[in-house]
Amino acid sequence: MPILSTQKLVKSFGGVHAVDHVDLAFHGGKITALVGPNGSGKTTFINTVTGILPMDGGEIHVGGVVMRRMNPADVAAYGITRTFQNARLIQQISVLDNILVVLTERNVWGALFERHTALHLEKAGNILKKVGLWEKRNENAENLSYGQRKLLEIARAVSMRANIYLFDEPFAGLFPETIEVISDILRTLRDKAASVVLVEHNMNLVRELADYCYVLDGGKVIAEGTPDYVLKQPQVIEAYLGK
Amino acid sequence: MEYLIHIAVLVCLYGILGLSLNLVVGETGLISVAHAGFYGIGAYVTALLLVGLGMNFFLAMALGIIASGLVALLISGVISRLRGVYFLFGTIGLNIIAWSIFLNWQSVTRGPLGIPSIPRPGIWGLDLYQNLQFLFLAAASLAIVYFISVFIKKSSFGRVLNSIREDEEATQIFGYATSYYKLAIFTIGAMLAALAGALFATYITYIDPSSFTINESIFIFSTIVLGGLGSSRGAVLGPLLLVFLFEGFRFAGFPSEIAAQMRMLAYGFALVLLMLYRPKGIWGTFRI
């Protein structure tokens, strides 16, 4: 049974259906790739599922709950977290604080009287060491390089200890060494039974990492199956290369 | 000496205002120019209770702080949903509404005539008639507000405020109901501003609406931009420098008919130069 699925999900901009009655299902312990040409609706799908964009129709099923409206502040409570196509860090605070902010108390009063503890620091330290940013922990996030920013955003998402991770183009523009670090993180999450959703353009990485693949075009699902299978389908080749 | 004590009291009062506004603007990124409104609510409620009912100063001050907090709580329920420039315009409206009430609710506030003969506070039977005695009260209040400011800044709550300041939507994705955080800090800021208002009313012993205009809010805002947004030290340094700049012009030798204009001119130049060459302010950690 999928831990996250959508039924007839719709998101429109004016008369354009960016996500057009889409049924997708994501299972625990799997990496599921969302691929498709630019403008096919991948990022819009993720933004709609996480409440960044209000949905215009359909349902989201998560953890046995059916939702027709998703609030961004409720996403974490359903065990969902995400990264963004362009890393959205808390720029003018330290790298360490960028991690601590997701480890500490959510309740207003609880947060007011809470100081981060040695346990919080240990958890933040572990993930920062894993992505190679421990030495940069006291620098403001705005001073990091592009690749480091991507790594920090992924580290922050992983610190959420969610069940469902939505990664929007985590490998875009990165060096092979950094790609390997992120690939390892994705595999580790899968091994821990999390559901990993990967929006990606690099088909070699999709083949290497994904267990299942959906191909979107024009807001609709045009193919699904294992990466090797879907990437050979004529409608997929046509979507990427044209007739 | 008496004049220096007077300036020191003003620095303490503006320091409290700066620290409280910094929590809203510098730590949370909510560009508010409603602070003089809450400052005024604290001043008016305290003054009315002292003059009308002869209430104990600390009780009157506490009620002034609570009144300001309740107003902020009610209003921020609406305006905390706003972002950026929309929030700014909401707070401009708030300050105008507060000022209009001070001016026009004449049966209570006496309108432009103001409230005279506000008694100085008394502590343990000791009336603080001397400015030096009042300075100790003002300085102690500033120290308490500074402690509160640092306490908030160092808490997990403070870190979430910084996160909201930079990217509210992403902060929500981490599971934070950001509107509650904005509501809480706006209310705390308003309550601390009301403390400064209560002290101001009893120090000057007279208040009228002219002390709580939008210009006053902009001046308070300017002090924290100068000192540096997101810095408690800066929120005290900024008022200190601007109060000294303003007062220093009294001794610059300008003819009395243009002295006030020259003072405003220098204030304006200082802000333009600051934005050009040091947009983070002197000790700022945050750039708008």
Automatic annotation (TrEMBL), chain A:
Coiled-coil spans in chain: none
InterPro entries: AAA+_ATPase, ABC_AA/LPS_Transport, ABC_transporter-like_ATP-bd, ABC_transporter-like_CS, BCA_ABC_TP_C, P-loop_NTPase
GO cellular component: plasma membrane
Record PROSITE patterns: ABC_TRANSPORTER_1 (PS00211), ABC_TRANSPORTER_2 (PS50893)
Superkingdom assignment: Bacteria
Residue span, ABC transporter domain: 4-243
Record has Iron-sulfur as a keyword: no
GO molecular function per UniProt: ATP binding; ATP hydrolysis activity
SMART domains listed in its UniProt record: AAA
The entry's keywords: ATP-binding, Nucleotide-binding, Transport
PANTHER family for the chain: CONSERVED COMPONENT OF ABC TRANSPORTER FOR NATURAL AMINO ACIDS-RELATED (PTHR45772)
Protein's name in the database: ABC transporter domain-containing protein
Organism from which the protein derives: Candidatus Taylorbacteria bacterium RIFCSPHIGHO2_01_FULL_46_22b
Lineage, uppermost ranks: Bacteria, Candidatus Tayloriibacteriota
